[in-house]
Design goal:
Blueprint: H1 2-17, H2 20-28, H3 32-48, H4 51-56, H5 62-78, H6 82-96, H7 101-133, H8 138-163, H9 165-184, H10 193-237, H11 247-261, H12 272-283, H13 288-304, H14 307-339
Helix pairs in contact: 1-12, 2-13, 3-10, 5-6, 5-14, 6-7, 7-8, 7-10, 7-11, 8-9, 9-10, 10-11, 10-13, 11-12, 12-13
């Protein structure tokens, strides 16, 4: 199904917006120094993926973090619902690096929540900036205002949950009342689903949030901005100045497409993200062939090329595990003989 949908988008939907041959011609006209700048931004974007985990995990080595993030990216890009599979691999890898399960769980949960919150917040912030700078219509301004209000309420709710376990209990009780009223219509017995989930969430993550919350927030924002910087450089390299496509417009296309790509229909949002990005860029002033060229370079540097180093880092991790297991085995046998 994923391959069928991908083929439909790539061969049926995207050609309705732009020509692949025209986009390839624009890509071929790029100078060497633009490719150097794009390559540097792409490398920085890849490296920035380790920052949230370095913020959440104490003393995480750069080498271990690179091995984890590159392997996780390769899995996410090649397996349907690969993000979920990558989480399982992340547990295995961090465990092999010597971190206990409780610390790993807290890091995975907090980085996941922060990343998802950023994917929700960026489109709202981008539309708000676009509404302010581009003299947008009343509907766009209203949507931006509603989105900002929703983000503020969500932030307040998270603050109250982390404030104390008692507050989390109260919020969970109120939420369960609403849920039980809805499920009661289908003759389902009342339960404390939300309350139990919030308490477990608060207990698992409270230490990480209190000690490293601000550092994690800064690291997550830096990761997102480095990815956006790559897209902006590609846009400018293809000759789209601020008069044609503003920074706010590029941010809107970037943020909205990343949110669309978060739906795990195809590996890495391939196809869904691309169609969304091209359509939004075109609607905001880019020529269709320019928008397609930007998308092709963006996906080449962040989707296809990182698969190969991801395979290499996975092999390196597997070999290091075997060496560690081989070194541990003889030591255990030696200790057993001495004890005998």
């Amino acid at each position: 199904m994923s391959l069928g949908l991908l083929a439909f988008i790539v061969l049926g939907v995207i050609p309705q917006f732009a020509s692949y041959s025209s986009a390839w011609a624009r890509m071929s006209d790029l100078g060497v120094w633009w490719w150097v700048a794009i390559s540097g931004a792409a490398v920085l974007s890849q490296i920035s993926g380790i920052w949230p985990y370095q913020a959440a995990l104490p003393n995480l080595r750069f080498r271990d973090a690179i091995i984890q993030i590159e392997t996780a990216i390769a899995i996410s890009s090649t397996v349907p619902a690969g993000s979920a599979v990558a989480v399982g691999m992340t547990y295995r890898m961090f465990s092999s690096f010597g971190y206990p399960n409780v610390v790993i769980s807290s890091a995975v949960i907090t980085t996941g929540v922060w990343a998802f919150a950023m994917k929700i917040a960026l489109p709202v912030a981008a539309v708000a900036v676009l509404a302010i700078t581009a003299h947008a219509s009343h509907e766009v301004v209203t949507a931006a205002a509603i989105g900002v209000l929703a983000m503020a309420l969500a932030g307040l709710l998270l603050h109250l949950i982390f404030r104390s376990e008692r507050t989390a209990h109260r919020i969970g009780e109120l939420a369960d009342r609403a849920v039980n009223c809805a499920t009661g219509l289908f003759q389902k017995p009342p339960a404390k689903r939300v309350e139990v989930a919030l308490i477990n969430f608060e207990r698992q993550t409270i230490q990480t949030v209190h000690q490293r919350g601000w550092l994690l927030t800064i690291a997550t924002i830096g990761n997102q901005l480095s990815a956006f910087a790559l897209v902006l450089i590609i846009v400018r390299a293809l000759g789209m100045g601020s008069a044609q496509v503003s920074v706010a417009a590029v941010l809107t296309a970037f943020a909205v497409s990343r949110l669309a790509g978060a739906i795990p229909i195809t590996p890495g949002g391939l196809g869904t993200l691309d169609a969304t990005f091209i359509s939004v860029m075109t609607a905001l002033g880019a020529h269709p062939s320019q928008a397609l060229a930007v998308d092709l370079i963006w996906r080449l540097t962040t989707y296809f090329l990182p698969i190969f180093p991801g395979v290499c880092t996975y092999v390196i991790w597997m070999r290091s595990r075997r060496r560690l297991a081989g070194a541990t085995g003889p030591r255990e046998a030696h200790v057993t003989r001495d004890a005998t």
